[in-house]
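so i finally got all the pieces together for this one. its three components total, 1511 residues if u count the protein bits. some of the lines might not be protein, just check the labels. i wanna see the whole assembly predicted at once instead of chain by chain like last time, that was a mess tbh
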Amino acid sequence: MAKDKTIQLTIDGKECRVPEGTTLLEAARSLDINIPVICLHEATTSEGLCRQCVVEVEGWGRLAPSCITPAEEGQVVLTESERVIRTRRTILEMLNASVDLSQSAALQAQMERYEVDPNRFPGAKKREREILDDNPFYIRDYSQCILCWRCVQACADDMQYTYALAIGGRGHDSHITTFFDVPIPESTCVFCGNCVGVCPTNALQGKTEYLLEKGLQHNEIRARRRQERQDKRRSS
Amino acid sequence: MFNDPPVSSQLQEYLDQNRERGREMLLPALLHTQKIHDFIPPASASAIGAALNVPLADIFGVIEFYSMLSSQPRAETSIRICTTPSCASQGSGELVLQTCQHLGVDIGEATRDGQYIVEEVECLGLCDHAPGVLVGDEMVGEATLEKIFIPGDHPRSQIYGDPLYLMARAGEIDPLSTEQFQEKGGFEGLKKVLRLPPEELIDMVTNSGLTGRGGAGFPTGLKWKSCAEVDRFPKYLVCNEDESEPGTFKDRALIEGDPFTIIEGMIIAAYAVGAGKGYLYIRGEYTHSHQVISQALEIAGREGFLGKDILGSGFDFEIELRSGAGAYICGEETALFESIEGKRGFPRVKPPFPTTHGLFNQPTVINNVETLANVALICKIGSEEYKKLGSEDSAGPRLFSISGDINLPGIYEITQPITLKDLIYEKAGGVRHGKELRAVLLGGAAGKFVAPDQLDVLLTTQGTREAGLSLGSGAVVVFDEDVDMKFVLHGLGHFFAHESCGKCYPCQLGTQRQAEILDRNLRGQALPGDIERLEDVIATMTDSSLCGLGQTAGSAIGSAIKICPEYFEIEEVSHG
Amino acid sequence: MNEMAKTVRSTCPYCGVGCQVDLIIKENHITRVEAPFDVAPNYGRLCTKGRYGMDYVSHPSRLTYPMIRKDLGAKPRKPVGISGFRRASWDEALDLAAEKLAGIARENGGDALGTFCSAKATNEDNYLFQKFIRGVFGTNNIDHCSRLCHAASVAGLQITLGSSAMSNSIAEMKDLEVLLITGSNTSETHPVISTFLREAVVKNGAKLIVADPRQIEMTQFADIYLQHKSGTDVVLFQALAHVIVKEGLVDQGFLDNRVEGLEAYLPSLESYTPEYAEEICGVPAEQIRQAARLYGSAGAAAIYWGMGISQSVHGTDNAISLANLALLTGNIGRPGTGLNPLRGQNNVQGCSDSGGLPNVYPGYQLVSDPELRQKFEKYWGVELNPEPGLTTMEMVDAAEKGVIKGYYVMGENPMMSEPDLLHARHVMEELDFVLYQDIFMNETGEYADVILPAVSFAEKEGTFTNSDRRVQLIRKAILPPGEARADWDIIQDLALRVEDKLGKKQSVGFKFENSAQIWDEMAELTPPIQGITHERVEREDGVHWPCPTPDHPGTPYLFTESFPRGKGKLTSLEYQPSAELPDKEYPYILSTGRVLYHWHGGTMTRRSKLDDIYPEALVEIHPEDALNIKVASEDWVKLRSRRGEIEVKVLVTERSPQGLVFLPFHFAEAAANILTLDARDPQAKIPDYKVCAVAVEKR
């Protein structure tokens, strides 16, 4: 990446000069233009999933995902054109129709920014799942999962190399799961929590925090743990 | 818990033979297991993981992705009934209900004795024999309840055209006889070009003006050139026989009727770019085609047309046959690579392009079946002769798959530019039963509807582009005045929702939202604002999806909104 | 209550990786642990202990006030639980402790005291501790758990290179070309480090050799897995050296310029043929050749090791055999190479660096060196003892003989971690006085006379030094419970009282207001860290020593020009079998060690939700052996050795080779060290935790 060659392009009417290999997103950042993102994270591989970061490049038929598109010499880029805003708003509206985004401050802020109608899609199929509470460390509430893939990536080649998670289903019914949907303790999971650390919503949450947010006190949490241990012993 | 039979010795033997090849053998191993147990038991999945060094979670993800693999016990015989518009409009929906009733089960529920299960699937390439059903490994055309349990002969397409070039041999020869193949001009092209330096071959193909016949229409010579120029080895040549575009069945006819042509085309292409290994990826539902090409490959190898020093040229090339497992998206070139590599069929971000980073991240050329047949033809007759066929911007003969409410469904080889109107009325006998035409779906589900007053479009690359249309895979589905268009639209919506891989948000969410709106439209429950919703969804998918599936998922619906908006009107709600 | 959470950056208190963590604090509790993605060494990665194991800090059984044993003076002292103690004020407790310690020193001399400082406490805590013991009592009887851990690695590296730490850095791991891991179940003992090693293999095509009797998780990533018999490491690595020499894979240039002793060393390799190694180790000769070629022909190859190498009766030899490989092939002194003992505790490196050892002052300056000693004498204003003190096990010996009469134990649990526990506990019974300073009561505290409550890592400021010599900060994130105080604060208070009772006219110097001042004093006396201050560590998120001056950038990898002893020394070795091998009566090898979810004596993790996922000891038995013993997983067995017996549950797994059973040592109710034997490496004085003989019977 660190080449000596730099290139020049125009973003939202402003000139910018960046090293060759810089993405459009980074180039915009260098001009203090903050393109919204959903799936992007510094510690996971960018796969260009959410397309929230799309921008309009003059002469291109389609919008470009700025997080993975390298800037090129002489490009003229618009980061908030009508087409771009339409896509971003629609993506948020569609996402909100499928997923419980109520606990994600970042996404709520984006929804406000793009004047999203939270009820744009009546009759939408919601990806609702029961909360999975099958280990002492973290809960999985996939009703809040936005399928950003970060957890699967963190568990695999981006951080942990333990490979406990997979994507099950296909299309809209995709969901994060384990080998044959077994409870987490029966998978190869080592509870490092690196997945929780990169999850952008509360789909993955530390159990302590989850219980505190439900209003339990620390001693109640301890008592609950004791109970769970006893139940486990009894059932084994 | 779940059924978990022990690892069969058959599977263990297979794994022992293939463990060195690692993850790329995952899909074959899973298909193997599916055949043995009618599902993938956890113990087998674990054994596969241990042998091929693939994480268990990944294996489960792969099983879950492909429609023909199952992590739960199914039944010995799957009765797969096509419900995509061509077949749906010929009554496949009723057939589903009939069959379920006869067996006493729900859709997706196995009979008590574990013998049968009924599944609704997407296009099986039997459009000209609608409704089409895949019963186990047998294809049934013009399916009825009786025929499902007593299948007749394998359905073959009628082939129309005069003269025939690409389809000259199909149906006329024993597909497995290299003697008959060569009597009718087979391998002539190959023999000629093996004496040429590859650069000359590439120039010839470039000159011919050949463009890809899979739907994208990219200049073939240019693709070959980019790959040939890369100084990295090994290189791969892949044949894309994942023909799944609704309304398309031409590649199936080619493979089943004239397999050696495809082999010839592959060898030529590999020689041009310097590929030593080829993969022929054929969709899992094309069971008969799979058998035919498998035998053809074996014969070709035995007779010296494949392997080392082909025809004494010094060129080595071998072809490995691979089966898909039920995923339309695997027709997308990079998703196809992922599938061969043993992963979920997610398309990759481009660039980089396959010619520099394709299969196993190596330089790869991937060509459609029909394209390769054209390649063999060009090499036989030369680029000048070839250019006389077709048009300047659409060189060469082109195959159209015509089905639906048409008098003469089948494959049409067109060598002179023709309008859609003439194709339908002059060549294919017009709308059957004397009905009026309602609309034509051109280019498959990823294509667009053409209104009766727009049929003058010339079926060339330029002609269609000027009309805001695209040839796509050459699928032409004709709908007469009686068609339940809402039902067709709902079917298209369902198709994309079912086939979306789920990777990028616009398509993962958009195809679902689109299907929901079309569903309620079908039920007469359209809501105010539904058209605006559809338009936003379609615009988002078209503008921002990662791959061609998402980018075209709203194309047909969008065209329907334009040419037949009445089908989206909100119905009067009756009170009381 | 809707209090805003605050975030405090700190360093994980568990292992020697030294992960940087962000503690999210609400209502004085650590409610979540995050890791910053752009900071070394872990770049956002954590393991289950760092992520979810901090809740011990708020456990209700934290020590919150000083305590004095109710039956003070009763002999033999019996282990008693909390109920055997009464609450006391700090004044009473410290005065009593000072009185007792001063008394022993006055009557018998300072050498009648045995002291244990803490690889879990900060550099500042430990510096002050050894200043106290040396400066006030005039004894060098100071040691810590490194004695039971990497002492042999240190001894081996001292002999061959003159050094005592991991030579290369964690940052280099993901880019390795070839690596050898031996005697380290890295994915369970140094999980975050193991992710970088796996990254090297998966992403960068690094070639991995694993040499381990147990089929540990890292073997899944290995190109070559040498499954050698326990205790035969010298033979295996000598055989690798043999092949490297015979096949001309040595780095002649390196040997000529940087190494001595080649001539004397070469003949010693003759008999260590791969065939001989196959006989002794049980590893196919061809595999040994392959491994030797892989290591020997690499452009850069690194060696990582752990307790399998060090905790042995010939641990020093084991370490030397590894050093010989690096010296022969020039695989040291460059990035991607090195001799890298993976240090266990969060601050075992720092504790050693800060002088928590019987033979050296901070910075490994020998107590026996007159010039160096004078430097400390001058600064502290007191005459110092020139004789190296006793190591941990030697202190136990001395206590048994009555030469040592009192113990001061800070942040250690020898009553779980010493070998032959029944004997070690018995020795405790006759001591005159035991002073115990910790955050929790544990098996050692049960023998105490006075208990002083200390604060946890989250409740004080200071520095830890991780395994790759990186000095990093811990910061106060929550208020300590009750009356608990920072270790250095306690030591200071105690030291002043002892000085008073001993009638010292001049104090050695215990007037520190904060830990930064303590560091500054230590740095002044310790050249390798003279360029480091708390402020600099804060600014740079950590600094690798050696860092002799403020503008020196710190040293991620060592020995680019020379070794501390000058040239590296190739050292001849002779294979010695282990001290106690299986026989008819005790037919299995017992190997002890750790599991991912627990930490050592269990003081912390048994009080964390980590205990929920792994609540009881499991002995790992090979399926064939299990069949012979007629047990399955979850059945109970009795493990018996010549020292004692325990009952424990079974886990049948192919991780254990046939003939070897593996037991973690975290569980007091099935204490592994009841079975182990006190056989020591003669040079490092470290016990062998990896090979002794046991009988295994269905209960």
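Chain B has five domains: 9-65, 77-149, 160-387, 398-480, 485-568.
Residues 256 and 292 of chain B are 6 Å apart (CA to CA).
anyway lmk what u think
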